Amino acid sequence: MKEKVLSEISADPWIKSSPAPPSLRLATFIIILVFLTFNACKQENSQNPQPKGKNAVPVKIQPAQKTKMVSNIEITGTVQANVFTEVSSSAEGVIESLYVRENQYATKGEIIAVINPEDRLALTAENQLRIEQLKEQIRNTDRDSDIYHTLEQELKEAKDNLAYAQNMYQTIPVISPMSGLVTYRWLDRGSQVAAKEKIITITDMNSLVVKAEVNEKYFEALKQGRPLPVILNAYPNDTIRGIISLVYPQIEPETRSVKFDISLMDFNKKLLPGMMAVIRIPVSVKEDAVSVPDHAVLTSPDNKNFLFVVGKDSVASRRIIETGMSTGNKLEILRGLDENEKVVVAGQEMLKDGMKVAITGQTQEGKK
After folding, report:
1. 161 contacts 127 by C-beta, under 8 angstroms
2. Where is pLDDT greater, at 34 or 185?
3. Spatial distance between the Cα atoms of 75 and 244, rounded to a whole number of angstroms
4. Helices 118-139 and 146-168 sit at what angle, rounded to 10 degrees?
5. How far apart are CA 100 and CA 182, in angstroms?
6. What's the order of all strands across the beta sheet hosting 84-88?
7. How does pLDDT run across 309-359, given as a tens digit for each residue?
8. Residue 326's beta-bridge partner residues?
9. What mean pLDDT, rounded, does the chain reach?
10. How far, in Å, CA of 335 to CA of 306, rounded?
């Protein structure tokens, strides 16, 4: 081909009759050579086309699998004692003595406070004031006068009245009704206290449980004796084994919830009333649910869930799906996907429906 073109060029009469300078002839020859080379490459490419997969999008796939799926809900609870008492005053008055405070142990039957009742305070205060007034008058009165002897007699009567008031109206001891730790002190020594007003709270620390409640639609998930994982906010790195110890036999009418207690098992760290806990409750289980990794599922602008399925021709098909429960990083597919279909789990963000793909591998989970 090259020889034929060159021979035709050399036979051109214009070229023969008009000899060009050597530099021009060389430039012309290079241009012709480049043109011939380009045409030869073009013909060769047309005879040997590139593979269709050269521009395919690289993706990873994983077969849809049937697995056991468990749907959980997470709720919060509070550490509280099942056995505690709030010790109150039996009479109105002033706290004359208070022998315990927070974090001290109280023993059943011991006196933990003394109340000076209001009646006793009023009578003793009245007689003490009268005694002081009489003493002042006696100091300013002549000993030989009749008034002096009268004042002395009145002073003696006032002292007798004071003694009578103190004997008739005794201070009132406050007795601890149970043994336990004082977890709260509501009032201090010298405080005015009303009848039935709280003074201290005593807690049996051996009766601490996690108290929680959940909507009644999950009532069937609450079985006495069922183990549940519990995480306390105070110990975020510890997953504690809890057991439902009590399900209360009543639905709260205002909240439509059911209350229950969880006993914490084999946990030796310090627990305090009021600690917050997170409880995970399995509420639904499916043994053979078709599932895929949750990151394989995308959402369209119109809020439809979809994923890409690769067929035998290495073409990705966009598939609208309906999702169900999720467990960990797995998502249940209720409709739109069958078991063992090859789902794109990496590279799907670059795909459109009908695009060619190049499978670069399967995830480790998909190879099992």
Report:
1. yes
2. 185
3. 14
4. 160
5. 8
6. 84-88, 198-203, 180-185, 105-106
7. 999 899 999 999 999 988 888 999 999 999 999 999 999 999 999 999 999
8. 331
9. 84
10. 11
* Three-state DSSP class for residue 55: helix
* Residue 40, C-beta contacts closer than 8 angstroms, at least 6 positions apart: 1
Q: What is the mean pLDDT of residues 116-140?
A: 80
What mean pLDDT is predicted for residues 37-63? 61
247's enclosing H/E stretch is strand 239-252
Helix, coil or strand: residue 44:
helix
Coil, helix or strand for 28?
A: helix
pTM of the full structure = 0.60
Structure tokens at 55: 């521009």
CA distance 245 to 52: 66
Is residue 182 within 8 Å of 100, Cβ to Cβ? yes
Question: What is the Cβ-side half-sphere exposure of residue 271, based on CA atoms within 13 angstroms?
Answer: 24
Instruction: Check: CB of residue 246 under 8 Å from CB of residue 224.
Output: yes
The structure tokens 């609870």 sit at 77
Beta bridge partner(s), residue 105: 181
Cα gap 201→96, rounded to integer Å: 18
Q: Write phi, then psi, for 128 (nearest 5 degrees).
A: -65, -40
Rounded to 10°, the helix 22-47/2-10 angle is: 150
Cβ proximity of 198 and 186 under 8 Å:
yes
**Residue 159, H or E segment:** helix 146-168
**Residue 323 and residue 330: Cα distance in Å, rounded?**
11
Contacts for 301 with CB less than 8 Å, ≥ 6 apart: none
pLDDT at 212 over 90: yes
Q: Alpha-carbon distance 263 to 233, whole Å?
A: 16
What is the pLDDT, as a whole number, of residue 210? 97
Cα gap 179→100, rounded to integer Å? 12
Structure tokens at 320: 């609208």
pLDDT, tens only, 9-24: 444 444 444 455 555 5
